[in-house]
Design brief:
Shape: globular
Oligomer: single chain
Largest sheet: 7 strands, mixed
Structural class: alpha/beta
Order of helices and strands: EHHEHEHEHEHEHEEHHHEHEEEH
Strand order of the largest sheet: 2-8-7-6-5-3-4
Strand content: 15-25%
Number of helices: 12
Bound molecules: pyridoxal-5'-phosphate
Radius of gyration: 20 Å
């Protein structure tokens, strides 16, 4: 007899991480190429000397600093082992069985369906529009009395599109008050569109809206694993209850705190990414590619059936991109020379 694991795990899709290929340029995982912010590296080194001690279980200092930054009480901030852990915690804290539904756009962040299945809940997906943007009217129409959580990813991974303030406010006003809306703002720091909302403004006065952000992307701490949620105290309390004790490690806590002190470095980095994003997209458009309008640190090429061939061509040119076969290719914005290598590969692609 073999051990008994959950039968439904056989159907669980595996998370596909961007590949790291020695000697190749990695533009596959939406990491920044520049590393942690320059002034943060020493903090991480110093914190290494203390790793024989357990971290602060309550992540107290980081919680205080974030609460102050966003003008909320500390009971409205939760820290997680990356914001993907917080996404999982909110589903665990709201869903109990297959009758509970978790709603999100598709294509969107590929962790959502996995997290939903792990919790034993049912994923419900709504296709993105022809412009690769979230279809909020269709998402509103897909909400049922069983919908526990709606993930609204803006800018959307992998399409890069951002929602505008008015349409998102209209959507939030229409969602039933017992359904939690998660604004997944993992790429918030890269947004330059003045019509894009700040989730921290939208959640004010709403009892069912949470914003989630991360230190993994713009702050360059993907390997440290730290993200945060800001929302109503009742939701934050539930998120905290299902947290694994000590999951936010000591290096991550120290690095995140130091990163919040390096606002100028962050601003400069994000401005560079936004400029390169514009250059990469306009070059691709000139080459005849269809490219979604992006507000994140990546671009989306809806290549459909030629996505895999494009992927293989990039790989042959030592550039690693993230491909969703039959659908499209997501390419992270790197340093200018890395982007040049990618654009050269794109230019020589013959479908
Ligand atoms: C990268 C990402 C996250 C969070 O990543 P962590 O490393 O777990 O903080 C969350 N949502 C989206 C859409 C992402 O792309």
């Amino acid at each position: 007899m073999s051990v008994r694991t959950r039968a439904d795990l056989d159907q669980l899709p595996a998370y596909v991480a961007g590949k790291s290929v020695p000697g190749a340029i990695k533009l596959a995982s939406n990491e920044v190429s520049g590393g942690p912010l320059p002034s943060v590296q020493e903090t991480i080194t110093n914190a290494g000397a203390e790793v024989h001690r357990y971290p602060d279980i309550a992540v107290g200092r980081l919680t205080e600093v974030l609460a102050e930054r966003f003008g909320v009480d500390t009971d409205r901030v939760a820290i997680g082992c990356g914001s993907v852990a917080l996404c999982q915690q909110i589903v665990q804290a709201t869903c109990q069985g297959a009758e509970d539904e978790v709603l999100f756009a598709w294509r969107s962040f590929e962790a959502y369906p996995i997290i939903t299945r792990i919790a034993g809940a049912t994923p419900v997906t709504v296709p993105v529009t022809g412009e690769h943007a979230l279809d909020l009217d269709a998402m509103r129409a897909a909400i049922t009395p069983h919908t526990r959580v709606v993930f609204v990813c803006t800018p959307n991974n992998p399409t890069g599109t951002v929602l505008h303030r008015a349409e998102l406010e209209r959507f939030l006003d229409a969602v039933p008050s017992e359904t939690v809306v998660v604004l997944d703002e993992a790429y918030f720091e890269f947004v330059t569109d003045p019509d894009a909302p700040d989730g921290m403004d939208l959640l004010r006065g709403r009892d069912n809206v949470v914003s989630m952000r991360t230190f993994s992307k713009a702050y360059g701490l993907a390997g440290a694993r730290v993200g945060y949620a800001v929302g109503p105290a009742k939701i934050i309390e539930a998120i905290r209850k299902v947290c694994i004790p000590f999951s936010v490690n000591a290096l991550a806590q120290a690095a995140a705190l130091a990163s919040l002190d390096a606002q100028d470095e962050l601003t400069a980095r994000c401005a560079e990414v936004a400029e390169e994003r514009g250059r990469v997209r306009s070059t691709l458009l000139d080459l005849g590619f269809d490219v979604a309008e992006s507000q994140a640190n990546f671009v989306w090429l809806p290549l459909g059936d030629t996505a895999q061939a494009f992927n293989d061509h990039c790989m042959a040119n030592k550039v690693v991109v993230r491909t969703f076969a039959g659908d499209g290719v997501r390419v992270t914005i790197g340093k200018p020379d890395e982007n040049d290598a990618f654009l050269a590969a794109a230019k020589s692609f013959r479908p």
